[in-house]
Design brief:
mainly alpha, DinB/YfiT-like, two-stranded antiparallel ribbon, 5peptide_repeat, globular, Four Helix Bundle (Hemerythrin (Met), subunit A)
């Protein structure tokens, strides 16, 4: 194993690096940035955690003996009561959640239209631009609805945008240089959202409780060519839509100040 004792690694970049089981003692991680990283089962003792901004999924995160994850969840739900409807258990709940998302996204798109078109391709704090966010949601629908649920092994559009940390996968587009007009991306979005509406419209208790039929094993892409619970696939889509709209609203507020 590598030993970086008394090493100066300031400004180092670890890209897709395997640090499982690594040990950090008396290390200076000030101003470090972690993106798309897995921090499961991390133990921190005697640390100073100040001026920290964390955005991600929190489960069983204990700080000074207190599991803060339920506290964060409760506060997020207090700020936006509709958030709790993004974890439905029956077909009617899924249809209600999707109607909420359609309404909220329409408001967000209207807000984005008031900005100069060039700003919709601009990143805020190295996050996806507004148009890239929409392209990623097209990809999420293609992956979890058209591929996993509907069985299309290659549902991708050239503008689909997987998550940044996804390894290059044959047949899956990931063009970060594309700069499509907003209306072009929105046309693609409307098509994919209509697909979700159609799937949810035909959802029954039995179909919600069922598992998907895997695409052929030799079909590259995401998710893997295995079976998934239909409910899990649909919950992933709701979560993607909810969280990325929240990020988009956050970044639009910053872009508005640049006008």
């Amino acid at each position: 194993m590598a030993d970086f004792k008394d090493a100066d690694l300031r400004g180092a970049r670890f890209d897709r690096a395997e640090l499982n089981g690594a040990e950090f003692r008396a290390c200076d991680l000030n101003d470090a940035t972690f993106r798309g990283s897995s921090l499961h089962r991390v133990t921190m003792r005697g640390v100073e955690l100040c001026d920290v901004d964390i955005a991600g999924e929190l489960l069983r995160v204990t700080i000074n003996g207190v599991d803060i994850a339920p506290l964060v969840e409760a506060e997020l739900n207090r700020r936006d009561p509709e958030r709790v409807k993004m974890r439905p258990d029956d077909p009617a709940g899924f249809r209600e959640a999707w109607e909420i998302l359609e309404r909220l996204w329409a408001q967000t798109v209207e807000r984005a239209r008031r900005l100069p078109p060039a700003l919709l391709h601009e990143s805020v704090d190295c996050e996806w631009s507004f148009t890239e966010t929409l392209r990623h949601l097209v990809y999420a629908t293609d992956a979890w609805v058209r591929r996993a649920i509907l069985g299309d092994p290659a549902p991708w559009d050239p503008l689909d945008l997987p998550w940044d940390e996804m390894p290059d996968t044959p047949g899956t587009p990931r063009d970060r240089t594309a700069r499509p007009a907003l209306d072009e991306v929105l046309a693609l979005r409307r098509d994919r959202m209509a697909t979700v509406t159609e799937v949810l419209g035909g959802l029954t208790p039995d179909s919600l409780a069922a598992d998907t039929t895997p695409v052929p094993a030799d079909s590259p892409g995401w998710p893997p060519a295995v079976s998934f619970p239909v409910k899990e696939c649909l919950l992933i889509v709701l979560n993607e839509e909810w969280e990325h709209r929240r990020y988009a609203e956050r970044d639009l507020a910053i872009l508005e100040k640049r006008v």
